């Protein structure tokens, strides 16, 4: 596997992340075309949720709307980070066994994410955190846990054992269990950001939460569709562009965060809960196009774990989303609805696509 852009991902410093996001955004907006002066673009950038976030909005109220959105994202970061000792999630993870009280918002998100985790049949488990810790994905101090260690830790991974008490807003977890909301937090924040903008009367915007969650809403000032570029996870360029008049594009990829072991193997941050090992089921990335960002975020992580065949099966059985898969053997696999809105670039423009 080529690792041409691995250096800044391996050390996600603010500077590196900014440079990366600036590159992504440059393309998004270059492709976005010209903006009439009457509907000037307002932009806001911030570093939160461990990523560089770029927000753009058009029209009346855009300035105030984006100000409110960045405050909202920072607030959510404070609530949902698993590593910030002040966050509610951190305190829940550090708590003794027994019911732990959380805010209505955290309770609601955990309940919704657990519902999704159940629906997706074990591909995502919020309780995967002890396994992530063992690999060092939360600290950057990477190591390869032994089979025995993983076997032991996997006993703590079972979302079905989390008890929620609706009337008292408490979460009860077995001893040693810890939750990680990394698979869904950006999606949730994106939905809240959109809600904040709509409340401020803003209806035309593009929200880019670190390129892995990008939401476009409303019509662009020039009347054209939004164009969202997808990075090629195994190159420096782009795999293609999605044209949309309002959708969320969520991407999960192994090469977003990984390390190379002494054995030369690549170990990435999305874990297969069945094995405790990085999920290697034929994909290097999967992108989903959905209406709702929380759902898209959860789904892309789950499909990455499920792999090529199960993604195709799940799509046929459930539908309600479109996908773009990039496989380890260099193929681009598109659902029918994605084919209609996706223009391949780079190595995929030359090689053609498969449906
Ligand atoms: P995403 O970038 O949305 O695909 O989420 C990946 C993040 O979710 C990882 O960095 C971990 O924090 C967390 N994660 C990894 N594997 C799983 C899993 N199987 N279930 C739930 N969360 C996971
Ligand atoms: Mg996700």
Q: Which structural class matches the secondary elements?
A: alpha+beta
| Average pLDDT for all residues | 89
Strands ordered across the widest β-sheet: 1-2-6-7-10-13-14-15
* Helix/strand order, N-terminal first: HHEEHHEHHHEEHEEEEEEEEHEEHEH
Q: Portion of residues in helices?
A: 25-40%
**Beta fraction of the residues?**
15-25%
Rg, Å, rounded: 20 Å
Largest sheet: 8 strands, antiparallel
Number of helices: 11
Bound small molecules, by name, code or SMILES, are: adenosine monophosphate, magnesium ion
- Could you give the count of β-strands? 16
- Low-pLDDT stretches are 1-18, 32-38
Short descriptors:
single chain; 355 residues; alpha+beta; 8-stranded antiparallel β-sheet; 3-stranded antiparallel β-sheet; 16 strands; 37% helix; globular; disordered N terminus; binds adenosine monophosphate; binds magnesium ion
Can you tell me about this structure?
By secondary structure, the chain is α+β, with helices and mostly antiparallel strands. The chain is built from 11 helices and 16 strands. The strands form 4 sheets. It has an 8-stranded antiparallel beta sheet, sandwiched between helices. A hairpin with a 3-residue loop joins strand 6 (204-209) and strand 7. The longest helix has 26 residues, at 293-318. Magnesium ion binds next to helix 9.
Topology (SSEs and partners):
Elements: H1 6-10, H2 14-32, E1 41-48, E2 51-58, H3 62-80, H4 88-94, E3 100-101, H5 104-119, H6 129-135, H7 147-154, E4 163-165, E5 170-172, H8 185-199, E6 204-209, E7 213-217, E8 226-231, E9 238-244, E10 247-253, E11 258-260, E12 266-268, E13 283-290, H9 293-318, E14 322-327, E15 332-334, H10 336-339, E16 342-344, H11 346-351
Antiparallel strand pairs: 1-2, 2-6, 3-5, 4-5, 6-7, 7-10, 8-9, 9-16, 10-13, 11-12, 13-14, 14-15
Helix pairs in contact: 3-8, 8-9
The chain binds adenosine monophosphate and magnesium ion.
Residues 183, 252, 297-298, 300-301 line the site of magnesium ion.
